[in-house]
Design goal:
Blueprint lengths: L2 E18 L4 E14 L4 E6 L3 H15 L7 H13 L7 H20 L3 H4 L7 E7 L9 H14 L4 E5 L4 H15 L4 E5 L6 H11 L6 E3 L7 H9 L5 E3 L5 H10 L5 E2 L8 H14 L3 E2 L7 H13 L13 E5 L4 H5 L1 E2 L4 E2 L2 E3 L9 E2 L1 H7 L4
Parallel strand pairs: 4-5, 4-11, 5-6, 6-7, 7-8, 8-9, 9-10
Antiparallel strand pairs: 1-2, 2-3, 4-14, 12-15, 13-14
Helix pairs in contact: 1-3, 2-3, 3-10, 5-6, 6-7, 9-10
The chain binds calcium ion.
Length: 377
């Protein structure tokens, strides 16, 4: 069963309302999807996380090396792509291209054997996944705090058991907003904060000190991803769990996070850090170091389905009679590409997502929507 064809598709949506985080604003959502087809006609979908045109160029780069290889031997293909990129792209967007192709090969393998990816990975250890809502981005408006509180209450009403908000507006504003939101949602909904590496170590410590009693579930990307020891020093000085890793790549990158005791929660993006093949390895390593793993998940239903399969396969660490339920990130910002690009649509019931049961990823890309949002060359 040979790899016959690899096609990439850049899709883009212009947002009605731009959103801001601690670094800059987004006016569009642009994503690169890949479809890999085997010589028996079986095809699989994958997705890369990062600048879509660069991901597309990366997929084109790998094409020449993997066409004709056995589509079912995804580790062999992975190693070929890894070695072809190693000399000049040990980290970064070329690995998003590798990740996209890897996910598509898992999809093909699942369809070929008639099994969901979670089964191929060794089986699902949970049947339903607890998503948390990622939202509460900044917008330019006069009553931002009130707007964010209303948005948080909407997520609570929708059944979310956790909500992640952006911080990074400066310590005073962050404290004011975080307290207002926590007060509004109450103790039965968990609250995480994410600064997208907006702060120096000193500033991150100040923020932690002032939020220490609020019961924050984690502080994500508090400092620069380059500062492994800064992460560690912050961890040693706060009871708030520290999360990070969405800018990290491959098991070699995560090894640095783990060796440096930088995080309580590792957040590899399956569509960037090396695909399902590599993130399963990273998960085994996280488990070895006693670190929790909650993938960074963003993008279309292809990426979200990949995350659901992986999360359902994670071991609880440590195990106990009533295991903690693993989280899954569910972006709630305006994104037509996430909501309508795949079928079946992702639905949430009583605050949970059902682990997909169909062969492969368990979704197909809607060709009509693909055509509608496709960036024509
Ligand atoms: Ca984040």
């Amino acid at each position: 069963m040979k790899i016959l064809k690899i096609e990439s598709f850049v899709v883009s949506q212009t947002l009605e309302e731009p959103f801001y985080f601690s670094q800059w604003e987004y006016k569009t959502r642009t994503i690169c999807l890949v479809r890999v087809t085997a010589d028996d006609g079986t095809y699989g979908w994958g997705e890369g996380y990062g600048p879509a045109n660069l991901v597309k160029a990366g997929i084109k780069f790998f094409n020449q090396y993997i066409l004709g290889m056995d589509a079912l031997e995804h580790e062999v293909v992975w190693q070929q792509m890894y070695l072809r990129s190693l000399d000049f792209a040990r980290r970064g967007v070329l690995l998003a291209a590798l990740s996209a192709i890897d996910i598509a090969l898992w999809d093909i393998k699942g369809k070929h054997y008639g099994l969901p990816i979670s089964a191929l990975m060794g089986g699902r250890k949970i049947e339903k996944i607890k998503p948390y809502a990622t939202g509460l981005y900044f917008t330019r408006c006069d009553a931002l705090k009130e707007k964010l509180v209303d948005e948080a209450l909407l997520y609570k009403e929708q059944g979310f058991k956790g909500i992640k908000m952006k911080v990074g507006l400066g310590i005073a504003k962050d404290v004011e907003f975080t307290k207002a939101i926590k007060r509004a949602i109450g103790d039965d909904v968990e609250l995480m904060i994410d600064s997208n590496h907006a702060y120096s170590l000193k500033e991150a410590m100040q923020l932690c000190n002032r939020l220490e009693d609020l019961g924050i579930s984690w502080f994500e990307e508090p400092v620069s991803p380059e500062h492994y020891s800064g992460y560690r020093q912050l961890r040693e000085n706060t009871s708030i769990p520290i999360a990070g890793g969405e800018c990290e790549y491959l098991r070699y990158g995560f090894l640095e996070l783990f060796k440096n005791k930088s995080v309580d929660i590792a957040q590899p993006d399956i569509c960037a850090a090396g695909g399902l093949t590599e993130v399963k390895r990273i998960a085994a390593m996280a488990n070895t170091f006693g670190v929790e793993l909650v993938p960074h998940s963003w993008g279309t239903g292809v990426a979200l389905h990949a995350a659901m399969h992986l999360i359902s396969n994670l071991d609880s660490n440590p195990g106990r009679m009533y295991d903690a339920e693993p989280w899954m990130e569910l972006d709630r910002t305006e994104n037509a590409l996430r909501d309508i690009m795949v079928e079946p649509l992702i639905t949430q019931e009583n605050g949970y997502l059902k682990v997909p049961n169909l062969p492969g990823l368990g979704v197909d890309v809607n060709e009509e929507m693909l055509e509608k949002y496709l960036v024509k060359e």
